[in-house]
Every structure is written in C-alpha cells, then in structure tokens.
Write a structure and sequence with these properties.
The complex is a heterodimer.
Chain A (H helix, E strand, L loop, with lengths): L2 E12 L2 E12 L3 E5 L6 H8 L7 E6 L12 E4 L11 H12 L5 H8 L15 H13 L5 E5 L7 H16 L3 E5 L3 H7 L2 E6 L2 E7 L9 E6 L4 H7 L3 E7 L2 E6 L5 H10 L4 E7 L3 H11 L1
Parallel strand pairs in A: 3-7, 3-8, 5-6, 6-7
Antiparallel strand pairs in A: 1-2, 1-4, 8-9, 10-12, 10-13, 11-12
Helix pairs in contact in A: 3-4
Chain B lengths: L1 H11 L3 H19 L1 H13 L17 H11 L2 H17 L2 H7 L4 H34 L5 H5 L4 H23 L2 H25 L8 H8 L18 H24 L3
Helix pairs in contact in B: 1-7, 2-5, 2-7, 4-7, 4-9, 5-9, 5-10, 7-9, 7-12, 9-10, 9-12, 11-12
The chains are: A alpha/beta, B mainly alpha.
C-alpha cells in the first residue's frame, strides 16, 4: 500500500516547552487514521507542522513520498481546530476564494455546498452562520479540491447529535470513496466507529499506534448475574478468574488469557448454578485509551 | 502575479470598511486637490493679517509646471489614510486567523505576502493616476499657455509620488505583520513621523550627516515642500538620485523584514 504520509522524528519546541517530541509514524493510502490524546498533547501542533503553518524544530515528514512543498497542500483538505473564514464574506464567496487559492474549478462549489446542505444559505455572510453551519462549511472547503487526503481536527466540536451523526456519515462515505482521512478527536466512540488505525499522543510523545480492530483482542471481561447466594465465591474459585468486581447487582469477571466466557459458563453449570445473564464485554477504545495513558 | 492580486482583492469584495475608506480617500484626494484656489484665498487673508497683500491670481498654483509638485506634495499628506487601510487588511488576517487557513489551503508564505504587496502597488498606481488626471485637468483650466514643454516639466515627480505612497504602504504592511494588532499598529503608524522627528532632532546635534538616511526624512528629501517658492526662496525642483536610492532601499528593507517575519513565525 502506498504511504501517503511518513513522519520521521518530528519535534517542536516553543521555548522550553516541548510540544511535540520525536514522533515517527506512517499513514497509508485508504486508512482512516485517528489521532487521540488529552488536551495539549500536541495533536494540533503536529497537524500544524504537516500543513506548513508551524515550523518544525526537529525531524522531517513527507507527503506522497516527496518532501513537502507549498503547492502539495492543495491535494490535502484540512480543517484545524475550528473553521476559519472571512466573516464578512458570504459562504459562497469564501469558497470562491478558496477555489482561487487551491486553483480548482469553481464548478465544484455547488457540489460541496449541496453535500453539506448549505446551498440555501450560501449567499449569507459567514458571520451569520450557526456553529454547525460553520463546521459544515469548513468540511465543504476541505473537500473543494477533491483532495486525496482529508485532515479533520475535532470536526464534531460543538455540534448537536444530528450534526454529529451527519458528519460521521459523511466521513464514512468519504472513506468508502478510497480517500485517506486523518481525524483528531476526543470522541473515542467516534474514532472507534470510523477509524481503521489510531495513534495516541501524550505530552507530545507518541505512546501507542496500531489498528483499531486489535483493540477488542486480549483478555475478556464477562458480566454475570445468577440467583445464587455464594456466587462471588464460586466465581473466585474458577481457575480462569483474575479478578471479580460487583457492579450494579452483577459481577464483572476479568478472565485470564486463554479462558473464554464459555469456559466460565460450563464451570458454573457444573456447580449447579444457571446464569440468568452472561455477557462478554468487548474492551472499548475508551478503556484501552485510558489504560495506555495510565501505563505510560 | 495577477492571480495573487485577484486573491487579495477577492478578500475585500464584500468588506464594507475597505470600500468606505478607499472611497473617502479618493474623494478627499480629488476634492482636496481641486480646491487649491480656496486654499489660496485663505492664505491671502492670513497674510493680510501681517499687513501685506498678495494677489492670489498671480500665484501660479495650478499652472504648468507648478501644478505637479504642488498637487503631489499635498496628496502625500493623505497617504496615511491608505496606510491605515493596509494595516486593517493585514491585521484582520491575523485576528480572523485567515492567514493560517490561506497557508493550509496551499498558498506559500511568500505568495501571501506578494498578494498584499501587489495590492499596495495597485493602490499606489491608482493614487498616482488620480493625481495625474487631476493635475492635467486643473492645469489645462488654469494655465495661461499650454506649451508641451511646460506641461511635462516636473512630471518626474509623479513616479516619485508613486514611490512615496508605495514606500509608506510597505512600511504599514511591515508594522502590521510585526505587531499583528490593528489598534497598536495604527497608533504607531500615526506616531512614526513624530518619533522620527524626536530622534532626528537629537541626532542633529552629533551626527547631522545621518539625517537624510532616516525613512520619513528621506521622503521629505524626495518630494520638496513646494510653497516657499511663492514667498521668498528657491526650492529644489528636481529629484535627487540619492533621495530616490534611500527611499528605494527602505522600501526593500520593509518588505524584506515582512518576508523574514512571515517565513519564520508559526501562524
């Protein structure tokens, strides 16, 4: 698979503050790449360096296998942090200006406006738009040049549930078209739903990266309910149990490796206990994220 | 090049402040330049107060070739309005953060600066053209004779005026890029003549040879104050190449500082 973005030992100091420290990673064509990390972990600074607005103090990166140039950025649609437009220009005029900068046909404007459902308001000044409309105009602007790569930094910030669902759908649709997407977000649920790969930053350092489908692997957690007085003792007696927690009237059993929920079920049955409720809990990206952050 | 200019003009297309300020500037320039006879009447009544009389019809304010330098010197006083507009245009890019988005969208920092400089060139050209037209019209109305030779005499002050305006707009652009806040930049812009005057009057005591090299002073040396010629003294009615060189050098320095600052900063 073609490497779209390669980052080598990239770093940025703001005076004594090390905002980004020695990051190396690769994004391949067609991936939906999630960038995670707490506030101030260096996500936006990293994206800023990739988009030429922040000068790196160390390391290098390449887009499409070549050293970065200014005009190369026209092949990348990016919205960093929040939508940025000229407030006194209408949505349409802002897009016309972007089309001039990106040197792409003006005819694309109608398409992207329709895609983000802003056709009706296109002639109103940008400053009269609601936050959701501003976000959608930003996505329209990023898509204007039919870019190979899309960079979205918190694209659902401040949107209502319908807006969030709309943007998620849009991202999935764009990804299905074969575009590479880099998505920075706090909404781990979102990332788990749409991303194929993810990376976690903490204090400017890359502490984890890998495919999203690996997240569910590893040890299982089983939620058990049964009508038995000494259930907790029985559960502890099971050789595959590593820990038991009581939560909301049910037991959360953390299994050791190689043990599955079926083994636990069989064990209970042998002890004459019939479980009324037995659910395997997949580890969510959120849990994994918090674990990785805690470990580092 | 033209593409970059069109980008910067597009940004202004619905910006009311820009059109109001530019409209006011060109209106003031036009009406101001055309009302020199009124000025003369005021001057006459002023001199009257000293017990002297002048016949204002004998002062060839609008006669070729005097009209050129007279108009150009007066028009130079208004360039600060245009400069304020340039400051607003560049500092807006910082406050709205649109500079950042322009770069993200694929403009290089050099191209961004060039688009602003080209607008400065356009505004300077428009000012010079305006003065040329007003000078031609008023000169034709008031001059007793329309000899070709007299009409084109002193016309070299027109490119000098273009240079003066472009120099000052470059200065305003640089201040805007360095300071990034419109209020502070405008105050500094308005004070720069005064600040330089304070510095030069101190330098005058020790190194008077340095004075012509100061930026605002170099403009005064480029386009001489013309009105003393109607009262008592000779003025220099040609352009000194040294003054041109100093103004040009400052203009280059201002734009280069803008470039360096833009190139190096995180935006």
């Amino acid at each position: 698979m073609e490497t779209v973005l390669a980052i080598n030992n990239l770093g940025k100091n703001f005076g004594r503050i090390q905002a980004v420290n020695n990051i190396s990673l690769q994004v391949k064509a067609g991936q939906v790449f999630g960038m995670l990390g707490p506030n101030g972990s260096g996500k936006t600074t990293t994206l800023g360096m990739l988009m030429g607005v922040v000068n790196p103090t160390a390391g290098s990166f390449s887009w499409f296998g070549q050293p970065p140039t200014d005009h190369m950025r026209r092949r990348i649609g990016a919205v960093l942090e929040h939508p940025i437009f000229y407030p006194y220009l209408s949505g349409r005029k802002n897009l016309e200006l972007n089309a001039m900068i990106k040197q792409c046909p003006v005819a694309n404007i109608d398409n992207v406006l329709a895609l983000v459902e802003l056709t009706e308001r296109q002639h109103d000044a940008y400053k009269t738009y609601s936050l959701g409309m501003k976000q959608r105009l930003a996505i329209a602007s990023a898509l204007l040049n039919d870019p190979d790569v899309l960079i979205l930094d918190e694209p659902t910030n401040g949107l209502d549930p319908m807006g969030i669902a709309g943007i998620r759908e849009l991202i999935i649709r764009i990804a299905a078209g074969g575009k590479t997407i880099i998505l920075a977000s706090h909404l781990l649920d979102e990332v788990q739903r749409v991303c194929t790969h993810f990376a976690i930053l903490k204090k400017g350092t890359l502490i984890h990266h890998g495919p999203v489908h690996d997240v569910g692997k590893g040890t299982e957690t089983v939620e058990v309910k049964a009508n038995a007085p000494d259930l907790s003792h029985v559960l502890l007696a099971f050789p595959g149990t590593s820990s038991v927690n009581r939560e909301n009237g049910s037991f959360q059993v953390q299994l050791r490796e190689q043990y599955k929920a079926a083994d636990l079920n069989r064990f209970l049955f042998e002890k004459d206990i019939v479980a009324s409720h037995l659910v395997t809990r997949q580890k969510s990206l959120e849990q994994q994220f918090l674990e990785i952050l805690a470990e580092s | 090049m033209l593409h970059l200019l069109r980008i910067d003009l597009k940004k202004m297309s619905s910006y009311r402040t820009f059109w109001v300020v530019c409209g006011l500037y060109f209106l003031t320039l036009g009406f101001g330049a055309a009302s020199g006879m009124e000025f003369l009447k005021w001057l006459a009544s002023f001199i009257d107060g000293f017990g002297q009389e002048i016949n204002i019809n004998r002062i060839p304010l609008y006669h070729f070739p005097d009209v050129w330098l007279n108009l150009i010197w007066c028009a130079g006083l208004l360039k600060v309005i245009l400069a304020v507009m340039v400051v607003i245009s560049i500092t807006n890019e910082y406050t709205y953060r649109t500079l950042r988005q322009n770069i993200i969208d694929g403009l290089s920092r050099g191209e961004f600066l060039l688009s602003k400089i080209l607008t400065n060139v356009l505004l300077s050209l428009m000012s010079a053209t305006m003065i040329f037209v007003i000078g031609l019209v008023t000169g034709m109305i008031y001059s007793p004779s329309l000899e070709w030779g007299r009409m084109v005499t002193d016309l070299e002050f027109l490119p000098a005026y273009f240079l003066e305006v472009f120099f000052f707009l470059s200065y305003a652009l640089m201040l805007g890029i360095l300071i990034q806040r419109s209020g502070l930049t405008i105050i500094l812009l308005l004070l720069s003549q005064l600040i330089e005057f304070i510095i030069t009057s101190n330098v005058d005591d020790y190194l008077p040879g340095l004075i012509p090299f100061f930026p605002m002073e170099s403009i005064r040396n480029l386009i001489t104050f013309p009105f003393p010629r109607y009262a008592f003294s000779e003025i220099r009615d040609y352009i000194s190449p040294g003054a041109v060189a100093i103004v040009l050098a400052w203009t280059l320095v201002f734009n280069y500082i803008s470039y360096r600052k833009l190139k190096r900063s995180d935006i």
